[in-house]
Amino acid sequence: MVEKVNKTMVKVTGRIDSNNAAELEKELFDALRVADGNIIIDAAGLEYVSSAGLRVFLKLKKSMSGDVSVINVTPDVYDIFAVTGFNNIITVKKALREIDITGCEMIGQGGNGSVYRIDEDKIVKVYRPTVELEQIDKEREFTKNALINGVPCVIAYDVVRCGDSYGIVFEMLKSDTLGHAFRKNPDRIDELVDKYVAFAKELHSTEILDGSITNIKEVLHKRVPNLAKWCTAEEMELLNSLIDELPDAFTLIHGDLHPGNIMIQDGELVLIDMPEVTVGPKIWDLVGIYRDMISAPSAPNGTSAIETSTGMSKNLIIDVGYKFFEGYTGIKDREQLDEYLKPLELVHALNVVLIVGAGSERAIQSAPLIMDILLRGVVIPNEQALRHILKEG
Fold first, then answer.
1. CATH class for domain 176-392?
2. Number of H helices and number of E strands within the chain?
3. Are 294 and 322 in contact (CB under 8 A)?
4. Alpha-helix runs per DSSP H in 224-295
5. CATH code for the part of the protein at 2-95
6. If DSSP states are collapsed to H, E and C, what string results for 102-140?
7. pLDDT at residue 303 above 70?
8. What DSSP assignment string belongs to 367-378?
9. pLDDT score, position 134
10. Is the pLDDT of residue 95 over 90?
11. Which of 52, 181, 303, 360 has its CA 20 to 30 A from that of 223?
């Protein structure tokens, strides 16, 4: 009756009535006993629910710190939630539209999933099964809110099911990425860098004050408790206090503003791929650009991930990265520019530590090394310098 998908999501199937409601309650609470935050119940296979079953859902909601959402509900089951008024107590969403991507052209691939063309005007970004539906819903919602606030980005239509995975249907831009443009037009690099810089400055002058996009400080604070396995209580307290140094800014932060996530449409730049979008001080976006365009490709062994994401060679990425910061800061002397980048390198170390708390499998596997080398070897020894840099924003 109950199948655990991940720590915050379960599938419920079959019929629920007074004969098995107690069993349902036990299975639900066992599956979600370590959950913290919002809970999702996938009810695609739920055929019927009685008043006894509804009371189990209500008990679950009262016991959890976050919201409880019942999704993929069939029309008949949805009517039961609606006629009883339970859809006013618990978030209930009707079944998602199904999309079959069999035979569709894959036009892109990233860390969270793959992108397929489904017709002339639309694409679908299909997420890996490990990506939680709550995160997918947030990307769609934040993309919509960014567009409403005048940010140049694609239209996000709806969240859909693609087999055993979820996806978002987006507007298909009949254009190429900025990364591909850099690779294909070596004689236009300076011109394209100027566009890249102007676009970043435009984003960093856009304030979203209506609360429709989460603040970066809130996101980072939520990650700290997840580090308890590798950090002492004192180290976690230090991390929270460093996050508190960030000013209360409301600038749009894309979080992954490399050329592979920017399209060129009719000569203008447009954002895509917005799962990490927040608001806060612009330094957090600049740290992301430093990470992708200078730090990662400059590492001794380099990295193929950013090369795949941007469609650019390692040397081209580094060249464009330095040119970007030259244009953004106005600093042309390389030694002076390297001095400017040192604070970003420190904040990058802090960011990597906090990324472990976001729960990605790759970051968790590297967590012990990250804590020893970056937290205890870089962040803690440079605590006062970091406080000054973060406070300046």
1. alpha beta
2. 16, 16
3. yes
4. 233-244, 283-290
5. 3.30.750.24
6. CCCEEEEECCCEEEEECCCCEEEEEECCCCCHHHHHHHH
7. no
8. HHHHIIIIIIII
9. 81
10. no
11. 303
CA distance 98 to 117: 15
Q: Where in the chain is the domain with CATH 3.30.750.24?
A: 2-95
Residue corresponding to tokens 């990250």: 370
Q: Where in the chain is the domain with CATH 3.30.200.20?
A: 105-171
Task: Write down the pLDDT at residue 323.
Answer: 98
User: What class has domain 105-171?
Assistant: alpha beta
- Mean pLDDT across the stretch 381-387? 96
pLDDT of 42 reads 92
Q: Where in the chain is the domain with CATH 3.90.1200?
A: 176-392
Predicted pLDDT of residue 168: 95
DSSP, residue by residue, 20-82: THHHHHHHHHHHTTT--S-EEEEEEEEEEE-HHHHHHHHHHHHHSSS-EEEEEE-HHHHHHHH
Q: Which two tokens stand for residue 310?
A: 């941007």
Q: What is the pTM of this model?
A: 0.78
The DSSP symbol for 299 reads: S
Sheet (strand 113-117) strand order: 97-98, 156-162, 165-171, 122-127, 113-117, 105-109
